[in-house]
Amino acid sequence: ITNTNALFVDLTNLKASRRLTGFSLFTAQFHAMFAKRAVYFFRRWFQFLPTLLIPIWYLAMMIWLTQTIPTAKEMHPLVIDLKPYSTDEKAAVILVEEPQQDVSIIGQVVHAMDPQPTITGTGNLTADVFDLINTIGSRAYGIQYPVAFTKSELPTTPLVTLFNNFGFATPALAIALSDSLLGLTMHSDEEPFVFTAINHPLPPSTADMMKNKATTQSTSIIIGYGIIVSLAMIVSGYCTFLIRERKKNSKHMQLLSGLPLWMYWLTSFLWDAIFYLVPLGCFIGLFFAFGVQELVGRATSIIDVIVMTLLFGWTAIPFVYSFSFVFTSAPKGYTMIMLYNMISAMIGTIAVPIIAQTVDADIANLFVYRSIVFSFLFPLYNVSNMYQTLYNNEFYRSSCIALDCSNSLFQVENPQCCGTDDERIYAEDVLTDFTKRGVLIGAIFLALQGFLYWLLLVAIEMGWFGAIRPCCKPKQQPSVEEYRSVEDSDVIEEKTTVHELRPESTTVVARDLRKRYGALDAVRGVNFHADKGDCFGLLGVNGAGKTSTFRMLTAEASVSGGDAFLAGYSVKKDWRSAGQHIGYCPQFDAVLKELSGEETLRMFARIRGVPKNEIDCLIIIMSVQIVKGVVDAIGIQQYARRQIKSYSGGNKRRLSLGMALVGMPDVLLLDEPTTGVDPKARRTIWGILSKVREAGSAIVLTSHSMDECEALCTKLAIMVAGQFRCYGSIQHVKSRYGTGYSLLIRLKHPSDAEKTRRRVLETFPGAVIKEHHLVQMNFMVPRSSSWSALFERAEALATELQLEDYSLSQTTLEQVFIEFSRAAASDEISFQSVKTLPGAIDEECYSSASPEIAKKYYDNEIVDDDKRF
């Protein structure tokens, strides 16, 4: 970028631009959340498709299995003809005894019915039949030779038709052929015609239907199993996106940017509820396809299925939301929630019907009540039981409506069908029936469970469990000795200043901020403040407490002691309001890799309430000016519309910075913002942040780059073992804590090294050689004289020794930082031996570990109390 001033001339105006409020803001945030879910879904459709297809396939298999169970039902009419007796290899054979019978006439009638059979004449029918039976066997004979024709012994009977008892429905077939031959004989001048015999089975009686009660219950249980497995797989999939978003810290970034918690969960619920309607429609389609009349035979039944399934969705979705907090791995969360649902539902589905069949009425009644308990505790068992109840009820109802219950005889003989309401075995509508024949109790349970799980979700999000747990735990004594207080006068002065400040009048205030992990004090009462236009740098080695401090400032971790105020809002008491004024660039990129850079920026712009007509302008600033300017060296502008998963690590850092800058918040919290960034792009970022600071934002950053701190920070602190060891402007820190001056000498010849070393030590008493590389020597010179005197002696020495070049400079910030790091390493605290597991920390937790090592151990192994469930 050649003209940084021109590039950011509008930053001040952008910071002061209008922001949406009220309903307009909620609409923009709703749009942002739905757009996020839509983009994620369509770019990961291959993940969601199996969670829909496999459950549907499984339920279809269960319904198909019920079709194979024999039941008493009305059979279809059966046309009786010769086709069943012919196969592809062998045609049916009709035997005709000659010469008494006219073979050709019989052939006309037979072939009019079926052209396949063969007409065979025989001189002695009886003898030939015995021979055939002996040759091919009675079974084969019965299959291939259904009927035969012979002469009649009576003069009044011209024809005798014989039927084979081994054949199926051969008597009716023989009669139909005989009648057809008689008709042809009476009307010989007409075309042959045949009579068709049709078997119409009698419909099963109500008694027959009731005898199949056990079969009906078995069918309903199989359908119940299908519902359990299918719904368990479907609803468990709703946790995967939430776990991934929370693990990536993207959810916290959205909440920190001003997204109301209720808006996050409302949009999540609406999205999942809409997609929950798809399997519901598939379920009803399967019931129609397989002809499960008990579930879709009446409009009332269809409504009952819809209401029951929707009520389960109302309960199951917040249940999955609540238990998603237990897991940090999406596949593990999906599997465990699915198994929990299946097992809890299967236990009741298997146990309750078996025990209910016992002859002991008291035990049976006990398990009826236990079924009610199961229904209240386990929503999936409840809805499965409701499906079974509906199936059984509709089966009994369809069996009973065949009776004329207005007949007093039926009312006496069949009270289960025609008796009073208490006597009848079925209900007109199970959804409104409060007795054990209906499902109204189960429906009420599902509605109540939904509210309870939503309340549980609110409790988890508001940290109520985290507030309860410390009260239930015994007070824990620290297992480590208290660190020696090494606060110097500058740190004490800043502490005094912070305690006198009014939080509402200062942009950033950290007052006695503490964080404890078990028995370890990771942050030990730090105090600092930053006002508009300030940039406060937090330096320290790994494990010094920098990230823990940032996590408290952004409410990722609870505050163990003290408080912090951002734009006048307490992080400890009202971090959501404070978050609306924060732009946060975390140490690890909190982005959804399925979104593009531009889509991510648009989402955060909507969350922060940037008006729609300004978003495109903002995207231009962010994706073409800021993002392009930040990473001009790598040309991120050409990747702005590509998915983030294709970005390099450096590109993701620039995007994280762009997310923090959206809306130009009052406070920027930057945790190592240029990690993994090349030098050219790093300097571009420094230019951006300098302009942002000049525009009136307060910046708090951590960094391992001393150059970055010197370029950006107006004041800084070096953190050692959880507390500040120095505080002030960069020049003040270098002047006060620097050990002297650095004299860098470049020789003309390597052979001059020893002479030069001796003369420098003579000229500057107390000087120490720090480095020597061939023709380059670096000395640390004590601060014993003024700058002018030191330069005068250095110039004289350069002339005397004919040096190639030399430089005399003040101690660098990096050298000050290294000295503090060395002091921290030499000040390790010994801990007692480790005898307990992570999560049960007491005075026997550690053995000879430095504070940095102990902190690293806790960072890797321990989850904050308020974040665990």
TrEMBL record:
One of its GO terms (molecular function) is ATP hydrolysis activity. The keyword Transmembrane applies. Gene3D superfamilies: P-loop containing nucleotide triphosphate hydrolases. It is a multi-pass membrane protein. Residues 508-746 form the ABC transporter domain. The chain crosses the membrane at residues 45-65, 219-243, 263-290, 302-321, 333-356, 363-381, 439-460. Pfam families: ABC2_membrane_3, ABC_tran, R1_ABCA1. InterPro entries: AAA+_ATPase, ABC2_TM, ABC_transporter-like_ATP-bd, ABC_transporter-like_CS, ABCA, P-loop_NTPase, R2_ABCA1-4-like. It comes from the Eukaryota. Its main location: membrane. GO terms for cellular component: membrane. Keywords: ATP-binding, Membrane, Nucleotide-binding, Transmembrane, Transmembrane helix. It is found in: Membrane. This is ABC transporter domain-containing protein. It comes from Pristionchus entomophagus. The lineage of its organism: Eukaryota, Metazoa, Ecdysozoa, Nematoda, Chromadorea.
